[in-house]
């Protein structure tokens, strides 16, 4: 890690700067998938307990974001996509980001344990540890498999939500985890293709840097092929049903088509059209995940009326 103290002389920080430390866009995905995991669990959860659980899971996600920005401030400063983040931009001191992240980590884990159960709290603590230590501090700067292995951090929230409701891990929770875990590599590699030299300039061994764009395109196709049966297969479990099956087949069909197009792209053509296909697939991948979890939620909501599930 570079000398992070270069970012210790901030301008005056506003409330919005501290909100940005929590990575609100990432948090929205965490909150949604965790909420789905909690709501589709086969038990009744007191609304106050459910609300408190989601709040503390969100705080845990925010803590991870703040700690990640503290640690990655040096590489964020040289990447166009991240240069305006609060720490490299000089609006929040690195020490403040660290302090906020540590405080929110402790509060979120302890309060989730008190609000729901300690297994859920333990999973949340492990998620924060995995994202900050295993991914940010270790894998991200060490191996092109950073996104593959590190994707587990973003895959835990629906499992945490499920465990907050049930107190145990089940096949359905593992499948929701697997869906996000397998989705993460093609999602981020599509982004890496049109981020051009950002990762190279920052010294991050993203696949586009270590193996080249052609290899990255092939990897996107392979991982999308591996993702499809995991996603569609969930339709035949307790969280699935005909609505989910129809949605998943359509979504995976489009994703596979997009990944196929990326694989067969010539780099000169991609450069000429400003990576339009890559950007399109990346944007779709965001909808892909939200719509899958939306379909899982729809199945659970309609099941009492005999319209969801098998």
UniProtKB/TrEMBL annotation:
<feature type="transmembrane region" description="Helical">
    <location>
        <begin position="220"/>
        <end position="237"/>
    </location>
</feature>
<keyword id="KW-0812">Transmembrane</keyword>
<dbReference type="InterPro" id="IPR006369">
    <property type="entry name" value="Protohaem_IX_farnesylTrfase"/>
</dbReference>
<comment type="subunit">
    <text>Interacts with CtaA.</text>
</comment>
<feature type="transmembrane region" description="Helical">
    <location>
        <begin position="118"/>
        <end position="139"/>
    </location>
</feature>
<keyword id="KW-0808">Transferase</keyword>
<dbReference type="InterPro" id="IPR000537">
    <property type="entry name" value="UbiA_prenyltransferase"/>
</dbReference>
<dbReference type="GO" id="GO:0005886">
    <property type="term" value="C:plasma membrane"/>
</dbReference>
<protein>
    <recommendedName>
        <fullName>Protoheme IX farnesyltransferase</fullName>
        <ecNumber>2.5.1.141</ecNumber>
    </recommendedName>
</protein>
<feature type="transmembrane region" description="Helical">
    <location>
        <begin position="146"/>
        <end position="167"/>
    </location>
</feature>
<feature type="transmembrane region" description="Helical">
    <location>
        <begin position="92"/>
        <end position="112"/>
    </location>
</feature>
<keyword id="KW-1133">Transmembrane helix</keyword>
<dbReference type="Pfam" id="PF01040">
    <property type="entry name" value="UbiA"/>
</dbReference>
<feature type="transmembrane region" description="Helical">
    <location>
        <begin position="26"/>
        <end position="45"/>
    </location>
</feature>
<keyword id="KW-1003">Cell membrane</keyword>
<feature type="transmembrane region" description="Helical">
    <location>
        <begin position="243"/>
        <end position="263"/>
    </location>
</feature>
<dbReference type="GO" id="GO:0048034">
    <property type="term" value="P:heme O biosynthetic process"/>
</dbReference>
<keyword id="KW-0350">Heme biosynthesis</keyword>
<dbReference type="GO" id="GO:0008495">
    <property type="term" value="F:protoheme IX farnesyltransferase activity"/>
</dbReference>
<dbReference type="InterPro" id="IPR044878">
    <property type="entry name" value="UbiA_sf"/>
</dbReference>
<feature type="transmembrane region" description="Helical">
    <location>
        <begin position="284"/>
        <end position="302"/>
    </location>
</feature>
<comment type="pathway">
    <text>Porphyrin-containing compound metabolism; heme O biosynthesis; heme O from protoheme: step 1/1.</text>
</comment>
<comment type="function">
    <text>Converts heme B (protoheme IX) to heme O by substitution of the vinyl group on carbon 2 of heme B porphyrin ring with a hydroxyethyl farnesyl side group.</text>
</comment>
<comment type="similarity">
    <text>Belongs to the UbiA prenyltransferase family. Protoheme IX farnesyltransferase subfamily.</text>
</comment>
<dbReference type="InterPro" id="IPR030470">
    <property type="entry name" value="UbiA_prenylTrfase_CS"/>
</dbReference>
<keyword id="KW-0472">Membrane</keyword>
<feature type="transmembrane region" description="Helical">
    <location>
        <begin position="173"/>
        <end position="194"/>
    </location>
</feature>
<feature type="transmembrane region" description="Helical">
    <location>
        <begin position="51"/>
        <end position="71"/>
    </location>
</feature>
